[in-house]
User: Fold these one by one.
Assistant:
Number 1:
Amino acid sequence: MMIVMKPGATPEEVAAVVGKVERIGAQAHVSRGEELTVIGAIGDREHIARLGLEGTAGVEKVVPILKPYKLASREPAHREDTIVEIDGRRVGGRNFSIIAGPCTVESRDQTIGTAHVVKEAGGSMFRGGAYKPRTSPYAFQGLGQEGLRLLAEAKSETGLPIVTELMDARDLESVLEVADVIQVGARNMQNYPLLAELGRAGRPVLLKRGLSSTLEELVMASEYILKEGNEAVMLCERGIRTFETAYRFTLDLTAVPVLKEMTHLPIVVDPSHAAGRRALVEPLSLAAAAAGADGIIVEIHPDPEEAICDGPQALRTDDFAAYVERLEAVASIAGKELSAV
Ligand code: PEP
Ligand code: MN
């Protein structure tokens, strides 16, 4: 709350307001301008409102500080964690989700085989790209429609919900036929018409943080989806670009508790794209779980040396069950339980 004092407010009147604010355990920051004194009261909004400062001597008005992201914000109305329900799996709250699968759908054997591994290890959902955002236009761009068909087969064989990326709104209809969660990649985080379209589509969305986006930009982007009436939005930290070149991106784990303060939406962490190499994926996953993430989206492959895309960072499917066990243990220390069916 901002408490704006009247132009002629005396130092005693200012001190009386500060005293009232501090007595309820809130902080008061006094800014004295040439004409006006403004007191910023930081603390429980309802407690401060109940002080009834509006009529107090020397007070001109009390103005609530509104966040620019109204729907995603934890305050004032939506304090509880949002839980996104996906075919019986729950993301958010005390649930921990493990979304795993290959970077890209390559073939029937690779897709169905990997989906079975995810299912058997107790994973929550299956990921795989049919439309891939590649840095080079000459690189493999994904199997497209054929990839979606293989994902549908993986779903009918294992029952796992499917997480897959949509890059172009023109593919929305066919992606909606198979995706239980639509991924918006880092490169499209600020593609506002695409976000609004997904808001209208109503399907759960996993919104990845842009390579150089601030947390406020990420949360504002989610607002484009929420604003259209789609409340099933999950945010994903996947590493940001910093001066460090020893790994692919810098996984910003501070983002997890900070986003939890900013928003009620679930926070998923992608250790794979941040790490860029396999050996780093497990330590980053465990750290993300310890930091309070609501889930992990991780790349795995039966034969990473032969993978078309992102092989060096893919965990081996043979190692996946043991990885899930260790991740589950850390998540439980953080008070969360694996959400699978
Ligand atoms: C991916 O998940 O395969 C991917 C391309 O991720 P990002 O958009 O975070 O780079
Ligand atoms: Mn990838």
Number 2:
Amino acid sequence: MGDQKKAADKLYDIRRTILVVDDEEVNRELLKKYLRDDYELLFACNGLEALRICHENAGRIALIMLDLVMPVMDGYEFMEVARKEPDISLIPIIVTTVKDMEEDEIHALKLGASDFVTKPYSPEIMKLRVSRTISQVDSESIISRLERDTVTGLYSENFFFSYADRLKMEYPDVSWDVLCVDIENYHLVIDMYGKEEAENILRAIADILRDDMWKSGVGIACRSDSDLFFMILPHRNDYKTFLRKVFSSFESRPDIHHVILHFGIYQNIDREEHIEKTCDKVISTVYKTRGVSSLCITYYDKKMRDELMERQILIEELPSALRDKQFEVYYQPKCSLPDGKLVGAEALVRWNNPERGFMPPDSFIPLFEKNGQIYQVDKFVWEETCRQIREWIDKFGSCVPISVNISRTDVYDPKMPDVISEFVKKYDLDIKQLHLEITESAYMRDPSQLVKIVENLRNRSFVVEMDDFGSGYSSLNMIAGLPIDILKLDMRFLRDDRDDGKPKDSENNEKSVLLRSIMDIADWKKVPAIAEGVETKDQVGMLTDLKCGYGQGYFFSRPVPAREFEKFLENPERSLIPETEN
Ligand code: C2E
Ligand code: MG
Ligand code: MG
């Protein structure tokens, strides 16, 4: 509503222009006298001249005062022509007639005149009719301005949503598809081609959508965000022709070569669902493929639908799951090599979901990392781990250091160091009892900022471990400047997952060369290294040869619930190497 008011205020700020069409000079002069204080005036002596002036002043004229009887082209003929011309047909016309010519008036109204005034003019009545007609048309055009996107002429988003929902109701037997078009990196397109050309590209897309809508009969489209389009149209199986047309029309314009379009298509949408939600789903499929330029078309299908639904449910369930204590922390031992003695543990979260059962972190952590909810989960794990360490110290007299994971999104939260420090204080722990694991990929986003955060944590005496080291994100340069205490080698270095036909020996060789260089880095930085994912005795041997001091993995123990972990704490000198392997 606020926007509508602003638009109206703006409109009434400007003086409106009236075109007076009359062959009699005296009439033109009279109208000039009555109207010039309030309006800008243009004059024509006949219909033909009026048409020319209308074309020259397209969009500027707010009203035409039209005499009916004129030479060259009279008022009737003018109206006949005008109503076929898109620019002119929208301008309201007040016909000026001579008193008691009722027939003329009826004829003129039939031809689309908005009103009439009789000559000789009564200035007051005439002015009232003029202002009433203009404001009536203005308010209609404000609505149409809000309804339409001014750049492309397509609907604006809000109107699209409400019309699309209405459309579904009006055609209950039709199955609908929703199509979404997104321009990759539109801001770069603006930088590259300039705003005007970028808008031309938007118009080109709008034209293609409009053209397609004509062919499909029903259907409407809108521009939503600056570079995002939605279209609802009757279901079709094949979008190839449509897409081919889009691509060829873009290829035919060498000036817009670097524009990458992404399409999301959701066929047979759920007609009960509010269209806004449907559109959200289509966008999320599009965003999935963003940046993968070879893959521009994504179908929103049943599998994706189920996946998204599942995700949505998890998001909604999280607060109550935290309240109901459905999350549980498991502990996985870290051992010294080669003797397998317990030196620490990693706290790893699990979700005991009443409906879905036991859920490993990979099934929900990435989702919560994306929407920021991970902070809630991590805070729970941090506190629960601190509480558990306190319980074990009280029970066993001491406890090995235990590490918690700090998600890549938490890392940049300025409150994070305080929050963790508070937990340590609350459970009266030595700060060295709680190690912090920060994944290597977190170092990518803003390395210099992260260095500051890690320095802050280390100044508080926290031990910081770099998790998943070697997963490929950091450059040597970056590593050199990183303040860390422990390197945790990515599991992939030990995993046997290559199937490239090369003899196993060469594969092992390659891996050990890589491992060796990573160990050199650890050595050079003078920090201990721990290998994740140790599963076999051979791996223990290889790591020992490479002077990797520590290991964590199924070979020693899977992550286990707190109660089970106690058996390691009860006998801290015992080796965790399975007896069968000794
Ligand atoms: P991560 O921090 O790198 O944790 C190590 C993962 O390797 C754990 O998976 C662990 O169970 C698994 N693992 C340990 N030994 C072996 C082995 O010998 N073989 C194999 N194949 N896997 C092994 P998990 O528990 O499924 O956790 C996966 C990831 O989820 C973790 O990777 C971590 O990034 C994240 N995560 C777990 N708990 C939390 C948490 O509380 N907060 C946050 N932010 N992330 C967590
Ligand atoms: Mg970890
Ligand atoms: Mg790891």
